[in-house]
Amino acid sequence: MPPKEKVESTEQVLQAVILADSFDERFQPITLETARCLLPLCNVPLISYTFEFLAVAGVQEVFVFCCSHSDKVKAFVKKYEKSSNMKINTIVSQELMSVGDAMRELDAKQLIDTDFILVTGDVVSNMKLDQVLEEHRARRQADKSAIMTMVLKKASPQHRSRSVGDGSLFVLDQGSKECLHYQPVKAFKSTREDRRMTMNMEIFDKHPEIQLRNDLIDCQVDICSVEVPALFTENFDYQDIRADFVHGILTSDLLGKTIHFHEVSDVYAARVRSTQMYDAVSKDIISRWTFPMVPDSNLQVGDCYEYRRGLVYKEKSVVLSRTCVVEEKVVIGANTQIAERAVLSNCVIGKNCIIGANVKIDNAYIWDNVVIKDNCVVQHSIIANDAVLEQGVTINKGCLISFKVTVGANTTVPAYSRLTALAEGEDDDSDAELISDPAVVGATGRGRSFTEAEGSDDEDEDEDPKNKQVNMLAFDMSELLLATKEQEDSASDFESEASDLEEDQISPEEELDREVAATLDRAFQDGHDVDIAVLELNTLRMATFSNFKEMRKRVIPGVLKHIDPAARPGSGKTAKEILNRWGSLVGKMIHDEEDQLDGAYVLQRACATLYQDVAQAQRVFAPALRYFYDEDILEEDAILEWYHSEKSQQGTDVERQLREVAVPMIQYLEQSESEESDDDDEDEDEDSE
Amino acid sequence: MSKNNELVDDLVAKLKRRQLVGSSAVAHATLKLLIVVISKNNWSTCNQLLNVVKSVGQRLVQANPTELAVGNIVRRVLHVIREEFREAESSASTNKNQSEFHAAPLTTSSSMYNLLGETNSIPDDNVQYPSSLRSNIIQEIREIKDELENIYDSIKNQASLQIHSNEIIMTIGRSKTVEEFLKMAAVKRKFQVLVAESAPSYSGQDMAVELSKAGIETTVIPDSAVFAVMSRVNKVILGTHAVLANGGLVAISGTHMMAAAAKHHSIPVVVCTGLYKLSPLYPYDEDSFNVTFNPDSVLGFEEGDLIDKVTVTNPYYDYVSPDFVNLFITNQGGHPPSYLYRLIVENYDPNDHTFDL
User: Fold this and answer.
1) Which of B17, B63, B292 is the closest to A56 by Cβ?
2) Which are the contacts of A581, defined by CB distance < 8 A and separation ≥ 6?
3) Which of B310, B236, B312, B315 is nearest to B272 (CA)?
4) Where are the alpha helices (DSSP H) in chain B?
5) Which residues of A touch B9 (CB under 8 A)?
6) Which of A159, A266, A287 sits opposite B304 (nearest CB)?
7) In contact, A659 and A649? CB cutoff 8 Å
8) Is A154 within 8 Å of chain B by CB?
9) How far is A215 from chain B (nearest CA, A)?
10) Which residues of chain A make contact with B304, given a CB cutoff of 8 A?
11) How many whole angstroms separate alpha carbon A287 and alpha carbon A312?
């Protein structure tokens, strides 16, 4: 029986898993209406490139995981399957929120029984996987713990097809082709952890030579073994395949699994992760870096693009007027008409579009059935299907104009606008009316501007907003850095609106006030030990970089506050009772004579401010001073110095009256001191004798 | 039928993905497929069969329009089908003067007479064809196959007529035909070969290795040195990807430069090619049959800062106009460019230049 199994395993079909959902919102509002993987890239749906890539690799069976807009994906896949020789299964699950969920689903359904290729539905690549597969299999034969092979591509740091916000740091062993450590790198490192990397030192014991690489494009093409989905199930909190899974596996001592890599250099591989990458990958396709996946290969059935000089791709049925200018790097889809004197450069125009006279289109991506009337200017933007730009519209860079939006005549759409024709808060079935915003789309327009918050925001809350921005279409890094300053200036406006954000905006002093008060309240309420309260306060002091003086200023009133001058003995609220219980807390904040003096001042002021009535204040102050003296928290030198100092005699009336309360005590102290000194003298005399 | 479609789909996909490239390989695959299509499909009349073959041909040609050999083979097959039907018809309608009828269409199809006279060269659909027709057609197509297989033999046999002792021959790129040709010549003669390295594919280097293995004195020169050494060369022997109707070549990039240098020095340019590379299509646009490859080999993709700012193109082929070429050596003998129109008429039917149904 076993030999037969072996025969089967060599003949096993090559399987691949495509994660068709992106699990993020970078293409919104366009992705509110269709799936990310169906967006046209150079007039071919994105996922077609992935299918093609897998077909070339010899994949026979594909599982497509989709969540949002699954019906559309399903319909497309069904159509596509007919013209391909792969078996494509669509798996729909509405609960998919991350890569991890998809992998767990995969494990639950037991669809995979051999090593498989895991890709996302937005990979564009012309690499041949046979060598990678061979390497992976050979490694598996030798060592069962090698569970995954990542395919990485080398590229210079400023490369356009490197996603700006999605950098990664790899620690690699070139000898064994093993990945030893992984860390994602953000474009803007706002927190201290972002700027640091922690690595297990044991790596150095096992691997005499390692490389730390930041020059690799990670397009998330992985050859995974069947253990990978199972490991996702075991570690149910893994979401991301890189930040959670790879990082987790490599840092775990228990699992003992290894992850390998395969570095490619002379092939193309990129992921359309963001609008910025959409732009870069489109340009790479037009510039033929993805050859043979170029428009004139006509990957899609029915396409008939021809290549012309200057990287111009034109369908046969395009109507170009005599005076229109088609400059470099242009793709024009079937049945599109370009009117007189229109100028097109660096752009992709879909099927059945009508481009009016004198229109200027630069760097833009115009999808199917778009009508652009005379004298429009479109710069570096994406315009989705069925949108209409009336006469004289100007679209500035970085705009996303979603499906069926109409921009009224002579409107200027500001840079980085996102327009949608979906009604606000519209789900799939609600029939809310679209309220067009004339300020945005003009008087005759149809659509409104889209704000990010509408979508369920499950991005990390601590994420720097700048990291999101760098992924945007046409984003200029220099502009971003300039804008940051403005943003910080305008932050105060923000504060009043968003109460959640208040925390970040208050001064550190106020924050300390609040924290100390909260700590003390907790301690009083829950009846903590003094030691615990002290520990908490000390942690707080260190966390806020403040000193004991600051703490005294807050702790002494904090304790005194709880004294009820009118309370009867036995109620637990008299000055004596409170001080017996919590007085030593103050003691922990006082260390040397200077502290004592300061403590006395603080005590005086605290009593004066806490209790308006002089009698009440005196009733608190006297026992407090007494207590502190008895407990040696305030020594007599400090109290005397306080009493005689000018500072204590100034201040408000209440403060001065409080000083008077201390008079009997001072007299007593002075007396005892002189007695003491007499004693001392006597002693000295004795000694000298 | 579905099996057929699967085979067609498979070949279409391979052509699209460029998993199958090169005139010879493509021609063989096309012919093999067409034999299956003709033998497995149901057809009873000439038009039916022509349409079946045409529709397959159209798909194959669209899959990769730059592999002209695909279209050429389909046209050859269509031509054979017409001939066979004509023959069958003539034998069915009359048994006498068979040979006369048989010859008639060939001579008239290309003459002015044909334009004005009867045009129904396609046989009537009502004729009852002999049952041997199918096998006859297959037989004829197999002959094309044999021709393809023996192409190198018939070309290389002319080698000793073209290459003389102590000559210096220049060539570019790697062409199997030229390689066989030179190797054959080396059996009898002693001569020297200069091979331009043919950047960025550097296929000239592989060619040089092959030639030197066969004992030919071979030198690799950079492409830029072609003009400089041309004055010492006796003959330029070129391979080609395709030959167009006007005698122009679609050949590896650098060929145009070499041919122009040869013309400047009045050095004869000889092109070795099988007839299956001869296409009845006319180059209205120089770029129309060119392929632009991944620019990676010209400027590495790693140079991220640069590739944003420049446009890099990497055309694989050159168009060489017919006035640069002195002689074509085909499997049917040597022909000047001006004679190619005649070969086209003999091998292809004028109705088949496009595959519109």
Assistant:
1) B17
2) A530
3) B236
4) 2-16, 23-40, 46-63, 68-93, 98-108, 112-116, 133-149, 151-156, 159-162, 176-188, 203-213, 226-230, 255-264, 304-307, 340-347
5) 83, 85
6) A159
7) yes
8) yes
9) 10
10) 155-162
11) 10
Element (H, E) at A263: strand A258-264
| pLDDT tier for residue A466 given thresholds of 50, 70 and 90 | low
Q: Please state whether A341 falls in left (phi above 0), alpha (psi between -120 and 50) or beta.
A: left
For A299, the closest of B10, B16, B302 (CB atoms) is B16
First to last CA, chain B: 20
Quick: pLDDT tens for A606-623: 877 777 677 777 777 888
* B189 CB burial (10 A radius; 0-12, 13-18, 19+): middle
Q: How far apart are CA A345 and CA B294, in angstroms?
A: 21
Average pLDDT (A266-285) is: 86
Q: Give the integer Cα–Cα distance in Å for A144 and A55.
A: 27
Contact B17 A328 (CB under 8 A): no
Query: A271 - beta bridge partners?
Result: A123
Which is more confident, A288 or A8? A288
Q: How far apart are CA A102 and CA A64, in angstroms?
A: 10
Q: How far is B304 from chain A (nearest CA, A)?
A: 4
As a whole number of angstroms, the distance between CA A282 and CA A361 comes to 16
CB distance A162–B304 less than 8 Å?
yes
* Minimal Cβ distance to B304: which of A156, A328, A329: A156
The count of CB pairs under 8 A between chains A and B is 78
Q: How far is A72 from chain B (nearest CA, A)?
A: 25
Q: Which helix (H) or strand (E) holds A63?
A: strand A61-66
Query: Distance (Å, rounded) from C-alpha A97 to C-alpha A103?
Result: 11
DSSP result, A117-144 = EEEETTEEE----HHHHHHHHHHHHH-T
Identify all chain A residues contacting B302, using CB atoms and an 8 Å cutoff: 154-156, 159, 265
- pTM as predicted: 0.73
Domains of chain A: 12-271 (3.90.550.10), 302-454 (2.160.10.10), 508-688 (1.25.40.180)
Residues A160, B308: C-beta atoms closer than 8 Å: yes
Token pair 């994949």 is found at: A59
Q: Is A329 on the interface with B (CB under 8 A)?
A: yes
CA dist list (Å): A684 to A253, A637, A671: 71, 21, 20
Specify the residue for token string 């830029």: B224
Rounded distance between C-alpha atoms, residue B314 and residue B308, angstroms: 16
Contacts of B63 in chain A (CB under 8 A): 298
Instruction: Kindly report, residue by residue over B93-149, the tens digit of the pLDDT.
Output: 665 444 444 444 444 445 555 555 444 555 555 566 777 888 888 899 999 999 999
Is some CB atom of chain B closer than 8 A to the CB atom of A514?
no
Are A156 and B305 in contact (CB < 8 Å)?
yes
Is some CB atom of chain B closer than 8 A to the CB atom of A126?
yes
Longest Cα separation, chain A: 126
> Testing the interface with B: which of A51, A87, A291 to mutate, by most B Cβ within 10 A?
A291
Say how far apart CA A411 and CA A395 lie, in whole Å: 8
**Residue contact B296–A83, C-beta within 8 A:** no
- Which among A154, A161, A288 has the least Cβ separation from residue B292? A288
CB B16 within 8 A of CB B10: no
- Percentages helix, strand, coil for chain A (3-state, rounded to 5) are 40, 20, 40
Where b means 16+ CB within 10 Å and e means fewer, A304-339 reads ebbbeeebbbbbeebebeeebebeebbbbbbbbbbb
- Nearby residues of B19 by Cβ (< 8 Å), 6 or more positions away: A56, B13
Helix (H) or strand (E) holding A19: strand A15-19
The rounded mean pLDDT for chain A is 79
